[in-house]
Design a protein that fits this description.
Elements lengths: L5 E6 L11 H7 L4 E2 L1 H6 L5 E8 L6 E11 L1 H8 L7 E3 L10 H12 L3 E2 L2 E2 H4 E8 L4 E13 L8 E10 L6 E9 L4 E3 L6 E3 L8 H26 L3 E3 L7 H7 L4 H14 L5 E3 H15 L6 H15 L1 H18 L12 H18 L2 H9 L7
Parallel strand pairs: 1-2
Antiparallel strand pairs: 1-8, 3-4, 4-5, 6-7, 8-9, 9-10, 10-11, 11-12, 11-13, 14-15
Length: about 375
C-alpha cells in the first residue's frame, strides 16, 4: 500500500481514559507516539469554504461565481498569509457540497462509546488503532479496534481484534464511510470490508452521526461472532492442490490478483499451512490478506477494494470463489486452444478436474452464501 504522509497511533477515547495499547499492537507500532482518539481527531486538517472567481480574459478582471466554492485548509491559508509556500486548496466543488469536518463525524463517536462496554470495560478505555493522512490531510482513513472485542482461534493465543474502518476526503472521491474491520495479531493481517460500506455523502443536511455510531457500535459484538463462525467453518473446507491442474500461485492469479501479490499470497499460505498440498479456505484467505496488507503497492481506494473483495470471498463465500476459478480456468484454456483444436492447459480432462473439485465441495460451501449476506448487512442503518 502506498505510504501515507502521516500515521497517528491512538489509544483511549480521550485523556481521561485508562488506556494502553495491547501488547501485540504496541510491538507492531514500535516507538510511534500514542495519543488519545480525541486528540488525534482534533489534529486532523479541516476544510472551510472560500469564495471562487474566474479571470475574464477580455477585461482581465476577476468575476465571482456562486456556483462553486473553494475548500481550503484554514491553517495553510494562514501560513500563506505569512508568506509560506504551501498549497491551501483541497478542491473546488459545486455549491451543493456540504463540508463535513472531522469533529462533525468523530466527535459524536466520543459520546457514543461512553455508553457501550466490552467484557465489562467501557469502550472508551479499550479503543485503539491508527489514523492515516494522504494529500495534505485532505484524505483520511482510520482503523479503529477494541481490546477484548476479538476472535481467538483454537491453539492460538493471538487474537483477531474486531472494529471498523472509516474515512473521508475533501476531494469529492470518498464520502464519509464506515465498514467492519479486523486485524490478526498473529501476523498483523488486515481483514477489511467485513460488512457493506455505509456512507454519508457531502450533500444536503449532515447526518445525525451520534445515532449512526450508536447503531454501529451495538453491532460490533455480532460481527465478531459472525467472523468466528466463518473462520471455524472455512477451516473445514479444503482444496487439495493435487486434484487440480494448477499450482498455488495460479489459484490466486485465476482469481485476478496481480502476479506480484499472488506470489506473496502463495508463499505465506504455504508457510502457514499444516499440509502445503491441501489447504483450507481460512489459510488461503490469510495468504491473500497477508499480500494485500504487507505488499500491495497501490493506493487505498477502488483497486484495493476490488482485491479485498476477492480475498474475502475465499473466506466468506467460497462458492463464489470456486465458480470464479472454474470460469477463469475455462477462459484461460479457451485462449490457449490452437487453431486445430489442440491444447495443453485447456484440455477437457484438466477442465473436468477443476469442475469436479467445485462439485465435490459444493455441499460444504453452499451454506456460506446466505450467511455472508447477513454479515454484510450488519451495519445497515435502521430507523
Amino acid at each position: 500500500m502506498s505510504r501515507p504522509e502521516t500515521v497517528q497511533v491512538f489509544a483511549g477515547i480521550d485523556d481521561r481514559a485508562a488506556a494502553v495499547l495491547p501488547e501485540w499492537y504496541a510491538t507492531r507500532v514500535g516507538d510511534d507516539e500514542v495519543v488519545s482518539f480525541a486528540e488525534a481527531v482534533r489534529s486532523l486538517p479541516r476544510a472551510v469554504a472560500s469564495d471562487v472567481a474566474y479571470r475574464n480574459p477580455y477585461t482581465g478582471a476577476w468575476e465571482p461565481t456562486e456556483r462553486f466554492t473553494a475548500l481550503v485548509d484554514p491553517e495553510r491559508v494562514a501560513a500563506r498569509a505569512r508568506g509560506e509556500d504551501v498549497d491551501a486548496l483541497f478542491h473546488v466543488p459545486t455549491a451543493h457540497y456540504s463540508i463535513i469536518t472531522p469533529l462533525d463525524v468523530y466527535g459524536p463517536l466520543e459520546t457514543a462509546v461512553a455508553e457501550e462496554t466490552v467484557d465489562g470495560r467501557a469502550l472508551g478505555d479499550v479503543v485503539f488503532g491508527e489514523i492515516r493522512q494522504y494529500r495534505g490531510g485532505g484524505e483520511v482513513h482510520m482503523d479503529v479496534l477494541f481490546d477484548g472485542l476479538s476472535v481467538t482461534l483454537p491453539g492460538r493465543d493471538d487474537p483477531i481484534a474486531v472494529g471498523f474502518s472509516s474515512g473521508y476526503d475533501f476531494f469529492g472521491g470518498h464520502a464519509v464511510y464506515v465498514e467492519g474491520y479486523a486485524q490478526d495479531a498473529y501476523c498483523a493481517n488486515s481483514i477489511r470490508r467485513l460488512t457493506e460500506r455505509q456512507t454519508v455523502k457531502h450533500v444536503g443536511d449532515i447526518a445525525n452521526f451520534e445515532t449512526w455510531w450508536e447503531c454501529l457500535l451495538a453491532r460490533l459484538a455480532v460481527v465478531a461472532d459472525d467472523l468466528a463462525a466463518f473462520i471455524h467453518d472455512a477451516q473445514d473446507v479444503t482444496l487439495d492442490l493435487r486434484e487440480v491442474p494448477f499450482d498455488l500461485v495460479d489459484f490466486y492469479t485465476l482469481l485476478d490478483l496481480p502476479e506480484y501479490l499472488a506470489q506473496r499470497a502463495a508463499s505465506d499460505a504455504r508457510g502457514e499451512a499444516d499440509d502445503p498440498f491441501e489447504m483450507d479456505m481460512w489459510t488461503l484467505h490469510s495468504g491473500a490478506t497477508y499480500a494485500l496488507t504487507h505488499h500491495y503497492t497501490g493506493k487505498e481506494g477502488a483497486s484495493l477494494d476490488t482485491y479485498v473483495r476477492i480475498a474475502n470471498d475465499i473466506l466468506f463465500n467460497p462458492q463464489v470463489t470456486l465458480a470464479r476459478l472454474v470460469r477463469a480456468y475455462k477462459r484461460r484454456a479457451d485462449a490457449e486452444t490452437s487453431a486445430d483444436g489442440q491444447t495443453g492447459l485447456g484440455s477437457q480432462t484438466a477442465l473436468a478436474q477443476v469442475e469436479r473439485v467445485e462439485q465435490d465441495l459444493g455441499a460444504k460451501v453452499a451454506r456460506f452464501e446466505s450467511r455472508e449476506a447477513r454479515l454484510r448487512e450488519r451495519f445497515a442503518q435502521t430507523e
